[in-house]
Write a structure and sequence with these properties.
By secondary structure, the chain is an alpha+beta fold. It folds into 2 domains: 146 residues, Creatinase/prolidase N-terminal domain (Creatine Amidinohydrolase, Chain A, domain 1, 3-Layer(aba) Sandwich), CATH 3.40.350; 250 residues, Creatine Amidinohydrolase, CATH 3.90.230.10. Helix content is 32%, strand content 20%. α6 crosses α7 and α8 runs antiparallel to α9. 47% of the residues are buried.
Length: 400
């Protein structure tokens, strides 16, 4: 395992967090690179990992590490006393040494798999650790604190990416308008590729190309056109655009939004009626976050989902809101902080300062679907939407 250039594990802060959480330590474990969180929190790059390694950071005192003899250098970049093993019996003896005197430790585990994004340690290893007389608790809040919080540079990278991402939406609508007015054929895939050109010209990268969904395809929340499977966009169509990207630099974080438009000069009521419900659900979630932080009240991801879902349920669309309200945003578009979710999972992670997440309720009917997505960044006692907020469906042909 190699230390990242100019970076070391923040041992003092981790131990302070462990004491605050009243935990005896945080046990990191990996085999065949199954736990990317461990490498990121420890600020090291993975090397060959065909044998199991363990790294234990206690709430007080020096860390300890347990490595296999044929991969003895796997934790060389990290401080702490080391013990090596070869046989499974030696491994178990070493694990007992590692955890000697400890009662409760955190691992990448989630009870009942409530937070599967953190539940990366296999059940057998959890059983093995428990056999040492140790209680295992979820590291979910610790992970959020040491992976999902942003530096000032990351915050600035997010804002810079947002300028380009919003520009890609405007130019997508402009491309549709120009083609339809000029009597030229334009497909979902054509618009997607235009958006990719804007992102690349603006210095952004993305793990997947934007979603461009026409009419009934917008009722599929994760629809994405391909060159061989793409619908032509016509006058009178409804269009949904979901796009995300980040700068090409280490540590950069994503910006992720969804906008909707109608290929005409006036948006029909069937669309505006549903959009207004989605907008109110989105704004109810934003308001809850802002008011809670301003008042200094603890707030959890599942509560934000409840706020948005209550609006949609009250209007009779509960069965058509088929995903969580939002997800954590970081170096991956789906980050490892709290999700706004009491639907797909029951996310009990606290919303903490200097984290970012999407708020994106949606209603998906048979012939169209509407989603409105913004990004929210939290401060110590405030929260802000980091980009433009869509207050009405864009009438695409009404523009000049």
């Amino acid at each position: 395992m190699q230390a990242k250039e100019g970076s070391t594990v923040n041992l003092e802060d981790i131990q302070s967090a462990l004491r605050e959480a009243k935990l005896d330590g945080w046990l990191f474990y990996d085999h065949h690179r199954r736990d990317p969180i461990a490498y990121r929190v420890l600020n090291v790059d993975p090397v060959m990992c065909t044998r199991r390694w363990y790294y234990f950071i206690p709430a007080d005192g020096e860390p300890r590490k347990l490595v296999h003899r044929i991969e003895a250098n796997n934790l060389a970049a990290l401080a702490g006393d080391e013990r090596r093993y070869s046989s499974w019996r030696e491994q178990r003896e070493g694990l007992s040494w590692l955890l000697n005197g400890k009662k409760a430790v955190a691992m990448q585990y989630s009870a009942l798999n409530n937070i599967p994004y953190v539940g990366l340690v296999d059940a057998g290893t959890i059983e093995l650790v428990k056999s040492c007389g140790v209680e295992v608790v979820s590291s979910a809040d610790l992970v959020q604190q040491f992976e999902a919080t942003w530096s000032e540079a990351q915050w600035q990278s997010h804002l810079a990416a947002g300028v380009v991402v919003h520009d890609s939406v405007r130019k997508a609508f402009a491309a549709i308008r120009e083609a339809v007015r000029g009597g030229k054929e334009i497909s979902e895939y054509d618009v997607q590729q235009e958006m990719m050109r804007v992102l690349e010209a603006g210095g952004l990268i993305t793990d997947e190309p934007p979603c461009v969904a026409d009419n009934g395809n917008s009722a599929n929340p994760h629809y994405s056109p391909t060159k061989d499977s793409s619908q032509v966009i016509h006058s009178g169509d409804f269009v949904l655009l979901d796009v995300w990207g980040k700068q090409k630099q280490p540590g950069a974080v994503y910006f992720d939004i969804t906008w909707t438009g109608y290929v005409g000069e006036k948006v029909p009521e069937q669309y505006t009626k549903v959009f207004d419900v989605v907008r109110k659900a989105r704004d109810a979630a934003i308001t809850l976050v802002q008011n809670s932080l301003q008042a200094g009240r603890l707030l959890y991801g599942y509560q934000v989902d409840d706020a948005a879902r209550e609006v949609i349920t009250r209007k009779g669309y509960a069965a058509f809101f088929v995903h969580r309200t939002g997800h954590s945003i970081g170096e991956d578009v789906h980050g490892n902080g709290a999700n706004m979710d009491n639907f797909e999972t029951h996310d009990e992670r606290r919303i903490i300062p200097r984290t970012c997440f999407s708020i994106e309720p949606g209603i998906y009917l048979h012939d169209f679907g509407i989603r409105s997505e913004v990004n929210v960044f939290t401060g110590a006692r405030d929260a802000r939407v980091t980009g433009e907020i869509q207050d009405a469906i864009v009438p695409i042909l009404a523009g000049s």
